[in-house]
Amino acid sequence: MITYILQIIIFQVLFLAVYDFFLSKETFYNYNRLYLLGTPMLSFVLPLIKIPTMQKVVPEKLMVYIPEVMLSPQRVIEKTTFYTEGSINYLSLLFWCGVVLFAVVFLVKLFKIGQLISKNEILNKIFYKLVLLPQKTSAFSFFNFIFLGKEISKEKQEQIIEHELIHSKQRHSLDLMFFEFLRIFMWFNPMIYIYQHRITLLHEYVS
Fold this sequence. Notes:
Blueprint: H1 2-23, H2 29-45, H3 60-65, H4 68-71, H5 73-79, H6 90-119, E1 121-124, E2 129-133, E3 139-142, E4 145-149, H7 154-169, H8 172-185, H9 190-206
Parallel strand pairs: 2-4
Antiparallel strand pairs: 1-2, 3-4
Helix pairs in contact: 1-2, 1-9, 2-9, 6-8, 8-9
């Protein structure tokens, strides 16, 4: 399992390197969006693909001399003091503690958004619902809800609403929710956070 996770991270590093060096400066925003959404999932699939011909590339005699840590890092780790048979698997315990923690953080975020919707004035528009936030100067969108601070000047409100409406129409919240779910189960993987940052920047370029 650890070998599989390491392979996922390596593929994601490569995909992000391609994006940063070759794609990020291009104006094909929709294709870049698909790339940033598709390559994280592709990185989960590629390590599962077995290519029999690759086994013939390295001579069998040479394989004998390759250290065990290169051939089977999972077996080496199991032999270390992280856990032994009959003892607590601390790596597994740490993983699930992280999953629970990040799941709780995600649910708290959803709960706070729900509170903003239920406790504040809502103006029903044709394509969206405008939630007015008292004593706030910030604005953001969540699916078809646009949250607008009442302290924002009237001159800027219309422009901000148009900006957030693009996010809403293009379902950018789905992209962010996708990475929030990935963060729950891959909370230890820094590449997920970089992916989320890249797609957030891309959303701003689009709008």
